[in-house]
Structures are given as structure tokens and as C-alpha cells.
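User: Please look over both lines:
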Amino acid sequence: MRILLHVCCAPCATHCVTVLKDLGHDITLFFSNANIDPHEEYVKRLKAVEGLAKSTDLPLLVDDIPHSAWLNQAAKGFEREKERGPRCTRCFRFSLERTYAVMVKNGFDSFTTTLSVSPHKHTPTLFEVGRAIDPDRFFAINFKKNNGFQHSLQLAAELGLYRQDYCGCEFSLSARSLAEM
């Protein structure tokens, strides 16, 4: 199956790529992360994903949508919501809809996301969003299973990949900063 893998970051993608390859899928990475702020952070994460694509010999597509579009379409009116709340669900939808559009345009069989490997993301919500977009073509795979997150940390360290310490948007960065106080 030709699958388009939405990649939130290189460390999370390491385990997901391993699992999908083991299942026999033909994988293309898709970096669609208009939520990431500041721009310097976006560049760091993109460079890490480019390094992963090169080391795994996988094709990489990069979405060119600006952060302002994400702010207007996903975050507007939800800026004060807590992490893991409605803003995050809207962010998942935004990214997965972008992934779906690229999947259809490029003739992939299915789409999924690396987000399900994170212990900070609610997998049932991700699956609900993906299935609402296309129940037949969303590949609902819980990458957390079998210690997926720990495996991703190990692989990322072995490959020397940049690993961020917040989800990506300015609101998650603010929440992290408040938690450190």
C-alpha cells in the first residue's frame, strides 16, 4: 500500500517508519506543520526530517502553507484553550486535511500520522479526526503500542536527530513555559 505519512517531527517518525516498513508499506513522508512557531523552530524540525528522509531513503513532500493560515483556520478563537483541548483537535484536523488533500492529489492509497506515537496525544481523538476525513483511507495505527515512543527516542538518539521540547505552536510553548515556573 502506498501511504502518505504526516510527520510531526523526525524523532516521532523514526519508529513509525520502522513499523510501516515492517508491514510492507511504500511510504512517503509529508511534513505539514504550519502550527510550528517560531519560524526558526520550524526550520530546525524540517532539517531533522530532511535528514531522516535521507537516512531512510524515503521521499519527502513539504507543505508550503504559512503559519498565519494555521492561526486563522485552526487556532483563531481557541487561543486560550488548554493543551490537549479543542485547539489541539482543530490542529489535528488541519494537518490531517492537508495530508488527505496531498494523498488524493498524488494518488496514494491511504494516509496516517506520526502523532499517535506521542504519549502527549490522545490517539482516539486522532483516529476520530482521521476517520471523519475519510473512513476508508485513513490508516488508524497506534504507534504508541509496543513501546513505540521509547523506541522513537532510542532511534532519534542513535541518528542524532534534533528533538524539540514542546508540541509546536506558540500556545504549547507558552504552556510549557508556564509549567516550568
